[in-house]
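MODEL INPUT / OUTPUT PAIR
PAIR INDEX: 1
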Amino acid sequence: MKIIILKRDKLGDLLLTTPLLQTIKQLYPKAKLAVVAPNSSAWILKEATFLDQVYAYPQPKTFNFKSVVSIFIQFFIFLKIRHESYDLAIAAGGEYSHRAIKRLLWIGAKHTVSFVPPNKYIKEITYPVSEPNKNMHESLRMLKLLSPIVKSKKKLHSPDIWFVPQKHWLLMAESFLLKNQLKSKRFIVFGLGARREKKQASKEQIIETALYAYKKYQLKTILVWTPGDKNNKNYPGDDALAYDILKSAPKEILPLRASLELTIGVIWHAKKSIFPDSGLMHFAAASPGGVVGLFADTKVSPNPNQWGPLGHNSNYIEAKESIKELGNNFLHKEINRF
């Protein structure tokens, strides 16, 4: 049997799809399992031993000559997939998406699975699935897509999120640590998220956390952020916030303004990471040290019940309105659990 999973979303969304992929491989170990996803996120699955093939297609954001070329490349990739004659294609997502279904049908599989609203009929979808409870975690919602093809009555349990960084990323991180006289597991990573202000710790909270971690456990803090200006529409950065913190930062805080590859490598060596709800939070959740995710104002923002970090060393803190309202000592209990 040949099974292919379509995933259109960003980094964190694809990471949360890895429990579904692992479950399919456990249920059908002899099946050929493939994923088709945008170039921007497909690289996450490069080291995945539970996959047999990954198709990556370009996804242009602006219309120009390069975007026209990308459209042709995308066309030929889906033509190649159609030639493979997949038995089953699944639109992996936590909710109904007409765009996902459109691409799903490009695959030309014998059978198709997707979330479809009860009041909507799409004849090309072989197995329409009703959307589960909105408050259910995204990873568990996607497992519901297997209900038409799993005959067992046993409840499916979601595995932990999966990711393995490439070896040279870890070597880059080791060089950075050596240069700064740091050892693996002897530091914490504190991440910024300026575009998520309500979920962002204040300068005072970050400095107090760093001082406490070092005074009590001799753990230094590496401050990481996305390079660039926060007004960049495509890739908002946190330079302004980071430089403001570093102006008054004690020696216990070390800056890391780096590529995603080096940042992930450093996270993998950390005792623990602390991140606002973001793609990096989910990467950190898959790391050996795990993560403390920061959530706030969940009446209007993503709820941790649905988007919280997965992983045996990961948990989250939720504030009613803003992380800043929790005071400067709000992470002390978490640090004591490290």
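PAIR INDEX: 2
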Amino acid sequence: MRVFLAVSFPSFGVSRVAMQLEKYLPSDFVITNDPVSADLTVLHVIGRHDHNLERAKRVVDAGHKYAVIQYTLKSTRNPDPKDWVEFWSGAKVMWSYYDLKKYIPDMYHAPLGTNPDIFYQEPDTPKNYLIGTNASGSCYQAECIGEARLAVFRAGGRMLHIGEPFGSDPSVDHFENITDDQMRHFYNQCSWYSALRRRDGFEMIAAEALLCGVRPIMFDTPDYRHWFDGLAKFIPETSVGETVRNLTKVLKSEIEPVTKEEIKATKKRFNWETIARGFWERCR
């Protein structure tokens, strides 16, 4: 089978997923850069509903099949899953970390993975930061960067920020355009890591931080609880002010180092080989 991965927009997370799908591609599958010759097109869904429906229609009209990886839903122009059923139903496989079996009973319900060869504990690394944060441009508010900055100020610590700058603050060290090796070293320097995300986002950084022995902080929503239960520190998804207060309490509390058993559980739960091979088997 000839497969077109259809990574048509720059995205850190999507690029990582595509790389792992290619890494664990079955021997009888072939990646092609020519969508016209592809038997199967994998659509990475982040944007608009109508745009993706048009993409799927072009694939079907050409006599081919498509698979869907649904990364976002709540932040799209069509947050109601009912609007997407036609699109999902036409797919060979619909994969999402959201539990959408009510709408697509045979969906592939699986998380995104992480790589323990890249992310791991570095012994004797000093904890220079009370909390770390990541941001991706327009997602600054959704990723609660402002809340983390206020909380770390109130807790009397320092903050590491990876991504586009958001202003000058003496308690925050900012870095961007870093390598995976640098990212691993930064994770290891943190006591906590923020994986707070309003509305959409699997937050792969939570699993990466766990492998580095750092407890992620996440909103207590059904999907995050499903995948990270027993591993992350959860706080309610509430108003900005309440989030700052809850986050401050966590940062002032006793640090909860990740145990070896939890790292082992993270490796098993977010194993890219298991996740990718499960997807490809459904694509046959």
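PAIR 2 NOTE: The CA atoms of residues 74 and 80 lie 8 Å apart.
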